[in-house]
Amino acid sequence: NAGVTQTPKFQVLKTGQSMTLQCAQDMNHNSMYWYRQDPGMGLRLIYYSASEGTTDKGEVPNGYNVSRLNKREFSLRLESAAPSQTSVYFCASSLAGFTDTQYFGPGTRLTVL
Amino acid sequence: EDQVTQSPEALRLQEGESSSLNCSYTVSGLRGLFWYRQDPGKGPEFLFTLYSAGEEKEKERLKATLTKKESFLHITAPKPEDSATYLCAVQSYNNNDMRFGAGTRLTVKP
Fold it and tell me: Are B47 and B4 a contacting pair, CB within 8 Å?
């Protein structure tokens, strides 16, 4: 079991470029999440998917879009990257909703110049 | 709005020197309080979930407790391998969100 995997591990973008962060889980979990982590701040929820076919906004959704491709995969897209989106992005999954234990991936470190 | 504050920001201990980390929270209807450990360059790793005041959970040298306003993570006789950032998060009945604190960075010196 790989758990939660994320690609890429590192990425540098120029302002205005677009990219998609990929996340996959092999634990047969129903719920998946995207967070960002900035120095001195806690993890902040960007979007989540309670179950396959549904997505909802979290605390900081502006500038992002998501796709729940199937039960295993949940991608995060930056359409026009901005320096304020420089951060470490974590994907997580849980069996069914927020009160179940969330398992996190290793993260993607994104720098926007 | 749900809020989580962790203190101290950083804590340096000698090996074997017990201490506690604090997580104060404001939430309208606590559904669960979570503790995670995060090593540098890695994703958070789950430690405990607490659901109601008075509840306690233990794992090796760690013990988590919960009151109506705060949670403590007690570390007994820590070892250098306990060095990490410890994160606290809350989930409330009123919204679908997880609110994390900024974390406490623990360093245990041999």
Answer: no
CB-based contacts of A94, cutoff 8 Å, min separation 6: A29, A30, A31, A33, A100, A101, A102, A103
B47-85 as b/e, with b when 16 or more CB fall inside 10 Å? bbbbeeeeeeeeeeebbbbbeeebbbbebeebeeebbbb
Structural tokens at position A97: 């909703």
Whether B65 and B21 have beta carbons less than 8 Å apart is answered as no
Cα B57 to Cα A1: distance, rounded to the nearest angstrom: 27
User: Is the CB of residue A2 less than 8 Å away from at least one CB of chain B?
Assistant: no
Residue A94 has pLDDT above 80, yes or no: yes
Distance from CA of B76 to the nearest CA of A (A): 24
CA distance B40 to chain A (A): 10
Distance (Å, whole) CA B12 – CA B30: 31
Tell me the C-alpha distance between B38 and A113, whole Å. Answer: 27
Q: Which residue carries 């450990």 as its tokens? A: B37
In this model, does residue B88 exceed pLDDT 80?
Answer: yes
Length of chain A, please?
113
Q: What is the dihedral of CA A81, B100, A33, A101, to 10 degrees?
A: 160
Type of residue found at B34? F
Q: What is the per-residue pLDDT across A102-113, written as a single tens digit (0 to 9) for each?
A: 999 999 999 999
